[in-house]
Structure formats: C-alpha cells, structure tokens
Specification:
single chain; mainly alpha; 79% helix
C-alpha cells in the first residue's frame, strides 16, 4: 500500500520512517554496547590489567621509593605500556566489527528491517569507541594507583585519537576483507617497518611510503600527549584524518553493497 493510497503525504511518511529508523538504532545501541562488553570489553580489561601487572609490579617492588622519584624511569615505562595497551585494545575492539556479521549470516537478517546499514555500522563504530574509552578509564585508574603522576585524562584523549586513527583503518578492512584483524596488524606493523627502512632514504620509495598509515608519529604523540597534553597539531590531525578517511571509505563500500564475502 502506497502513501498516496492511504492519503498520507509523502513527506510525512518519510519523516515517520526516519523516526522509526532512529528508534530502532537507539534500541540497537544497547545491544551493541552489551555485545562489546561480553565479546571485547572483558578481554581488553583482563589483558590490559594482567599485562600492566606483570610488567610494572615487579619493577615497582624492585625500585622501592625510587619508583615515584622525580627522575625515575617509571614514568616512561608506564607511558610506553599505556600506549601499547591502547593499540591492543583498539585491535580487539574493531576485530570483526563488520565481517563477523557477514561471516555468521547476520548481515541479511539485520537489514531485513528498514534500518540503514551505513547508520547502523557508524553507530557500532562509535559505541565501540565509547567502550574502549571506558575500558581505558578503568585501566588508567589502575595505572594511577601504581604511579600517582600518571594523567588519566591525557590517557583518555590519546585513546580516543588512536581509536579513530587505527579503528578507522580497521573498520575499512573489516568491510573489504574477511581477515580484518590479521590484515590490520600487518598494515600497522608493516607501515612502521617500511617507514623506518625507506622513509629516511629519499627517492621514489620514500615518497611511496608516505601513503602508508602515519604510525611513525605514534611514539612522539604518545610521549607528548599522555605526559603533557601538548602533541603537535599536525601529527594529531594526520593520525585522525587518516582514520576518518578510511572510516568514510568503509561506509561508502557498505552503502554500495561492496562487502567482501
């Protein structure tokens, strides 16, 4: 039955459909948040907590009062650990963010109802981002109990940046490939290696590696952003912009229905 046959104006019908779409998305967000914690959040907390305990607690006991001394290496070690935990958390969070639904046959079922796939997966991306930040809030609080000078707010800002940068690439790969977590790890590590090898040499290879993810900026951004909240703006924009670009590309592929089987 068409809108004309019912006597309902077309624009009103469209607005009603949009409202129903938003309502369904709002209800889905609760399920998405629940799925994040059961499937990813608990793992992030356990792995991050155990990793921090195994690495830092023996050093803290060995160093004694020197652990909190002004020139203690504890701050740098904690910062490096925190940066690594964030990257691992993002890898866990975006693993299968789209491809899992496709592999298990949920994709057709989810969108048998009038819900936009683009809006649905955009919401998933940001719901998972909130989950990662909450997880890092808990782990950052634990790090602060070990090292009182650790700044949790700076750590959360860094976590959000890395989620956008790394998660945007992971989202695209989850749309375009079946083995997204492995591909993302290979891209992230491979970009660091290739930039380290060919970046300083000049020539066409040096120009080519500039197209790779700007992972060579991570150490400087982590050191300055977590410690002082003063990361260079160009580095932050480069990381965030790269991730946003690939997030948008992934959403374009979803809109066009070009999803890897």
């Amino acid at each position: 039955m068409s809108a004309e046959s019912t006597g309902i104006p077309m624009n009103r019908t469209q607005s009603m459909g949009s409202a129903l779409n938003r309502g369904r998305l709002a209800r889905y967000s609760l399920w998405q948040f629940r799925d994040f914690w059961w499937e990813r959040g608990i793992a992030i907390l356990l792995i991050g907590g155990l990793w921090g305990y195994v690495v830092l607690e023996p050093l803290r006991l060995t160093m004694g009062p020197q652990w909190t001394a002004p020139n203690s290496p504890a701050a740098r070690m904690t910062l490096q650990l925190a940066s690594a935990v964030v990257s691992l958390a993002v890898l866990i969070a975006v693993n299968g963010i789209v491809s899992t639904d496709r592999k298990h046959g949920y994709y057709r079922f989810l969108f048998a109802k009038p819900v936009s796939p683009v809006l649905f997966y955009t919401q998933v991306f940001f719901v998972y981002m909130a989950g990662v930040i909450i997880s890092m809030l808990a782990l950052g609080g634990l790090l602060r109990t070990i090292l009182p000078t650790f700044n949790v707010l700076n750590f959360l800002i860094y976590s959000a940046l890395i989620y956008v940068a790394m998660g945007g690439i992971g989202f695209f790969l989850s749309v375009a490939t079946r083995f997204d977590w492995l591909t993302l790890a290979a891209v992230w590590l491979g970009a660091r290696i290739l930039r380290g090898v060919y970046g300083p040499r000049g020539g066409w290879r040096s120009k080519l590696v500039e197209l790779l993810p700007p992972v060579h900026k991570l150490d400087d951004v982590a050191n300055s952003l977590i410690a002082n909240r003063t990361a260079p703006g160009t580095d932050v924009l480069w990381l965030a912009g790269y991730g946003i670009l690939f997030l948008v590309l992934g959403l374009v592929l979803i809109r066009k229905g070009q999803i890897a089987d």
